[in-house]
């Protein structure tokens, strides 16, 4: 599994021959100024909620690639009105089988509205189960006991968790979340983009190490294999 980071909460997963993009907020992000949005190839775009810092480039990338947007019903309806023809609506608790594996939408505790103020339904996260690995993309969320339900249904290999505080969990809550979902490997997200969510990289890594967790903070544009 190949993972490329484009800043904030945007990751591109290459799973077999399929490319799955999460929460694309790239072109307005000064930290991602060296990323060419139009060069990004995606077959599916998964959106956790409607806030601009998670959906800004979704329409552009979807139209460039004839990609399928997967999100809750309200968000999908909004994009359909913009001329996006390939969509798959979901809602919390639902699961869909796609060519790369299954995607289940799980609870997240966060607000959600689209950039023009349109109601965007309930924020969510995703559990993606592939032939070889299973992972949890938490989206924007507070720490919640609902996370304890995930390992009752899935054996996760790793989780992508927000660590920037202020709008989401901080590193301390994220490490509790890692325990709740029973993973030792965490990929951090939703940090540094804005002054409110800037973090001390060395400090959070030390906190994670003391908790016995491997915290991966990817560089923007970096690709890793897991």
Automatic annotation (TrEMBL):
Residues 7-190 form the Metallo-beta-lactamase domain. It comes from Pontibacter amylolyticus. HAMAP family: UPF0173. Pfam families: Lactamase_B_2. Keywords: Hydrolase. This is UPF0173 metal-dependent hydrolase GCM10011323_32770. The keyword Hydrolase applies. The keyword Transmembrane helix does not apply. One of its GO terms (molecular function) is hydrolase activity. Belongs to the UPF0173 family.
């Amino acid at each position: 599994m190949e993972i490329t980071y484009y800043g904030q909460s945007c990751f591109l997963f290459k799973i077999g021959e399929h490319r799955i993009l999460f929460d694309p907020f790239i072109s307005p992000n000064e930290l991602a100024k060296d990323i060419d949005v139009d060069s990004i190839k995606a077959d599916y775009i998964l959106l956790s909620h409607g806030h601009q810092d998670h959906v800004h480039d979704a329409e552009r990338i979807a139209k460039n690639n004839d990609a399928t947007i997967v999100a809750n019903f309200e968000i999908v309806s909004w994009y359909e009105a913009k001329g996006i023809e390939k969509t798959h609506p979901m809602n919390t608790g639902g699961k869909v089988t796609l060519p790369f594996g299954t995607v289940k939408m799980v609870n997240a505790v966060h607000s959600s509205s689209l950039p023009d103020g349109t109601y965007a339904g309930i924020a969510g996260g995703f559990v993606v189960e592939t032939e070889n690995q299973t992972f949890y993309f938490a989206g924007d969320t507070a720490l919640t006991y609902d996370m304890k339900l995930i390992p009752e249904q899935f054996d996760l290999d790793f989780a992508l968790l927000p660590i920037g505080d202020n709008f989401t969990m901080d590193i301390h809550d994220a490490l509790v979340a890692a325990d709740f979902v029973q993973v030792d490997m965490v990929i951090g997200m939703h940090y540094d983009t804005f002054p409110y969510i800037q973090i001390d990289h060395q400090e959070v890594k030390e906190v994670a190490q003391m908790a016995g967790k491997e915290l991966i903070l990817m560089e923007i544009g970096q690709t890793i294999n897991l």
